[in-house]
Amino acid sequence: VADEHPAPVQHSPLEDSAFLKAARGEEVPHTPVWFQRQAGRSLPEYLRVREGVAMLDACMDPELVVEITLQPVRRYGVDAAIFFSDIVLPLKAVGVDLDIVPGVGPVVAEPVRTLEDVARIPDLTPEHVTFITEAVRGLVGELGATPLIGFAGAPFTVASYLVEGGPSKDHARTKAMMFSAPDVWDALMRKITQIASAYLEVQVAAGASAVQLFDSWAGALTPGDYTEHVLPHSTRVLERAGALGVPRIHFGVGTSNLLDLMAEAGADVVGVDWRTPLERAIPMVGECSVQGNLDPTLVFAPTDVMTARAGAIIEAGRAARGHVFNLGHGVIPSTDPDQLARLTEFVQSYPLDAG
Ligand code: CP3
What we know:
Blueprint: H1 18-24, H2 44-50, H3 55-59, H4 62-76, E1 81-82, H5 89-94, E2 98-101, E3 105-108, H6 115-119, H7 130-143, E4 148-153, H8 155-164, H9 172-180, H10 182-205, E5 210-214, H11 223-229, H12 231-242, E6 248-251, H13 259-264, E7 269-271, H14 278-284, E8 289-294, H15 303-317, E9 323-327, H16 337-349
Parallel strand pairs: 1-4, 4-5, 5-6, 6-7, 7-8, 8-9
Antiparallel strand pairs: 2-3
Helix pairs in contact: 4-7, 8-9, 8-10, 9-10, 10-12, 15-16
Bound molecules: coproporphyrinogen III (CP3).
């Protein structure tokens, strides 16, 4: 009977793109590649359009977001675009007083420390971010068969900016709240879970083909603390994103001890930073694909040294269900774009047939 059959797979150049196939664990014509922070200060065309425009103002201008997101796609022909925004943008959109200070990062005017502070942060509704809907719709039209990755900051990483008031090396105040004020911590994690989930829903509803959850600073936690205080919340965000029917990438830095848990939280693809060889990461992520993980400083080495390392990563990635090539963290602003162009070409032309 008809309803014993699964829904037919939709075939379109977009759904059949190498990136989405690798994310779903299907066979690919070439290893797909994109770069975290591929849009940004390493590109002269980015510096030109950003001149005199503050970071958050740029993020709230759909025309600029479309242009900046497309820049690395045009230049490199990468296999995916990532929406140009920032993990703190949805907080700004609901009214949290914060700014992104050049060379520093996000700075929050009134750090969150109490239940009352948490209660003052509104839930996010689509009306807060109509400019995001507009930008994503515009992009999807321009990108054609190139998938657009939407993203959000994960509860722990976003909490760190809110609680510390800015970037932090040790996340001491954040972890102190986690250890000593479980009620405040729980309320804060639930608030960020709502904001991240609603923000991802807006991006997918407008046409994003995949989402990445950035838990950049989760590597500061022991597996036990991650499991108890963070995992349930990230799981909820990924569960809601999964219900939207798009692949979910879950990424953090310094997470060699957490990769199994990050997979368990509900990822289709686990992002791996450059410190953990894929040979070690792959057995930890079970049925997930992997994304990564060239050391971002290898672009400063001679091209043959860089490509030799990239080739070894592609070979290691073949043991995974699927592999999306990327850097192990963001593009460093002083990166020569011509090196990333050579790297893209190398990865996309690397032969995958013949064992
Ligand atoms: O191309 C892309 O990857 C998409 C754009 C993107 C930005 N931020 C643009 C940006 C993405 C995905 C982010 C996410 C983000 N923001 C994360 C998670 C990813 C990671 O790096 O682990 C984090 C931790 C942030 C917080 C943040 N915002 C930092 C640490 C900084 C850098 C501060 C500085 O000036 O060095 C920002 C600002 C920011 N976000 C810039 C860009 C291009 C630089 C600002 C500028 O160009 O003026």
